[in-house]
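Entry 14. Structure prediction run on the chain below.
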Amino acid sequence: MYKLRMFNMKWQLLNYFLISSVLTVSGIYIVLEYYETELSSWDFRLWFAIAILVVSLTVGFIATRRWQRKVDELHVAMLELSKGNFAVRIDMEPVEPFLYLYDAFNSMATSIEKRVQLLQKLGEAEAIRDQELTENAVMEERRRLARDLHDTVSQELFAIHMSASSLPKILERNPAAAPALMNQLIEMSHHAQKQMRGLISQLRPIELKDMSLQEALEKWFPEYCRTHELQGQLDVSLPELISEAIEHQFFLIIQEGLANVIKHASAKQVRLAIYEREHQYVLQLQDDGQGFERSDIPSASHGLSTMRERAQKLGGEVEIDSKLGSGTRVRVRIPRFSGQ
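Output returned:
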């Protein structure tokens, strides 16, 4: 079959060559047969040579243009495939010089689509198993947070109580020392409040059960931003329901991304967007923080690598765009297959 297709391609090339040759020979024959006397004129010879050249170039141009269109069509399809459009295929004509190339590309695209779709299904199954296996870990983490609550905030409150209890005596014996103690009380109470907010946000994670990701985010995201003194903007547009595994992985990625914003970005505003393209689900998290250079990524790469791993489980990818002083944008793309 391969040899037959190569033969067809070579035969079309030979056809263009034969057409050009036939036109050239026919022109020469007509001139020799009917214009023999005019051949003595150099002007006639020149125009005849120009005519032959124009005919040859025209045939060559038509052939080259047709083949260029075929190459461009293949190039565009390859670009679409590289961008994650695994459903792209090239329509083939019954008589097609590029038939074997187009057929090979379509077979390759079909194979890639099936493999990525299988990878996504396996990733979804693994994500569900991981979710079940982490229930005990979540309970243990809550116990740890309860201990932290006792060891940090409780001790802070006790220290505030002791300082506040001593304030009347200090006002009576040494009024000049009272302002310093009051400033210390304000600072300690603010610190305790921040710790309490952080622990509460960890103790009250978002619940996706019986809710879509969009519904859960609309309930949780504004509260999370208020807790951490961020101006948040949420834009979720998902016309179709997505699988539970993709929703779960999206949320874990959102958690990791927002944690990075709180820890490293020193941001005041954050925007979370989730939307759907023809062949992709896209999650984008953007902040106006301090940003970072690519060379600084290894110093805080744990969170970023975790997000990449979660996206790769579903056949997706993570793109990170950041610059010092210009904030950071994290874009996650997950393939969307027909029928999902």
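Confidence is low (pLDDT under 50) at residues 1-7.
Filed with the rest of this week's runs.
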